[in-house]
């Protein structure tokens, strides 16, 4: 049987398809129980701390609500206000938090920091996003796809945009492990690391899936079951990156043309937050500088019947809860 007690959740590469399946099934059960009003509390008496170097809406709220639903107590340490990163090192912070808390969530820049937290704290550490990986997001995405399509195996999944970022990397691994056909729709310079691509091709061989890189949006999206995108510039990247990215990725914007070449029941997904209109400060700023009013996805697609982005966002809660229950629950 699968047993994840005491384990950290740092990146999907550390988990077997069976373990990922276990987490998805547990998330589905927890979601049902919450809806039915009979959720059993598996984390009573536990304390968890959420350590954020970067901003967050979904991830923070999912950890907080998930822990509270399960009877645990939560401390939030934001990008400012703790000693972490300024006066105190990762290793020292880890040894302090590990003595007070049963589990630690970390969102930050370096993957090596989340790995060090796990090493020095001695308690399960959950990666809430680093520059390299965003593993809890992928669990929510897989659960959402399965809810919509009834399966994962054999589905054609397209990731359009910056395929080198945390989402591109993590989705490629998740799809490869779960027997899906992953295609990155991106210009060559934004394909994932060659080494990671070949690793994922190996994984896909075992699972019956496949991994492809395609420098052409229409070709990549042909007959897709899922089209996924993410911001063109990620948290922590220099604002100067925008100009180059817009040039490189404009042909890979998810618009109705992409939806039309896909399967008629294609679903559109996005981890959010998304640039699909001018209703944010950052979008207005970019509009002023570069003239674009929609970026990685058009508002038409974002608001269309194909879009399941808010179901996907809700599933952050159920899947993150599953990760906590599986690793520190009774
Ligand atoms: N998708 C996601 O991680 O969102 P937040 O940045 O709001 O946590
Ligand atoms: N690639 C994005 C994901 C946000 C959830 C970022 O890192 O900013």
Provide an overview of this structure.
This protein is α/β, with parallel strands linked by helices and 330 residues long. The protein is built from 13 helices and 9 strands. The strands form 2 sheets. A 5-stranded parallel β-sheet has the order 7-6-5-8-9. The protein has a 4-stranded parallel β-sheet with strand order 2-1-3-4, with helices on both faces. α3 packs across α4 (111-121) and α5 crosses α6 (166-177). The longest helix is centred in the N-terminal third of the chain and has 20 residues, at 17-36. It is globular.
What labels describe this entry?
330 residues, Asp/Orn_carbamoyltranf_P-bd, 13 helices, transferase, binds phosphoric acid mono(formamide)ester, four-stranded parallel beta sheet, alpha/beta, Ornithine carbamoyltransferase, amino acid binding, binds norvaline
Nutshell version of this structure?
The protein is of the alpha/beta class and about 325 residues long. It contains 13 helices and nine strands.
Uncertain residue ranges: none
Strand content: 5-15%
Main pleated-sheet profile: 5 strands, parallel
Termini separation (Å)? 16 Å
Note the run of SSEs as H and E: HEHEHEHEHEHEHEHEHHEHHH
Averaged pLDDT, please?
A: 98
With strands numbered from the N-terminus, the spatial order across the biggest sheet is 7-6-5-8-9
Tally of helical runs: 13
Question: Ions, cofactors, ligands: which are bound?
Answer: phosphoric acid mono(formamide)ester, norvaline
Structural class: alpha/beta
- Overall geometric form: globular
Number of separate strands: 9
Helix percentage range: 40-55%
The multimeric state of the shown protein is single chain
Computed over alpha carbons, the radius of gyration is 19 Å
